[in-house]
Amino acid sequence: MTQTTIDAGLLISSINTAERTGGKSSLGKDDFLKILIAQLQNQDPLNPMEDKEFISQMASFSSLEQMTNMSTQLSDFIQLQVNDGILKYSEMIGKQVEWESGDGKSSGIVKSIKQSGADIILEMQDGKEVPSALITKVTVQDS
Question: Under CATH, what is the fold of the domain 87-139?
Fold first, then answer.
């Protein structure tokens, strides 16, 4: 009877080593697939894994892959929204806006728009800078 050895890279202890050394903090789809393959390769041929158990694990893998893809797409979408913010707010240039400030409501005419990180800042004609989140009303300036 020959004894087979398990590839050390497939052991859970070697996967968790990355956590202890500052690497990734959770198992990903590649790690899950490695574990599943190791499990299939090392199962007892006289007592193989049941179909229901295998189907359950494959469904879990499929769900994990779909969640990973959705997370990536959502991150891309959020980044796109942040990058387009300045273009959306540029329509406010020349318009009268009202905002809530520490001393009540204030108003002014928007002179320019700038982006500071993820925030959009409206610069008024009088030099005040107002975060877009504080804007409560926008009106067209009468000619």
Answer: SH3 type barrels. (2.30.30)
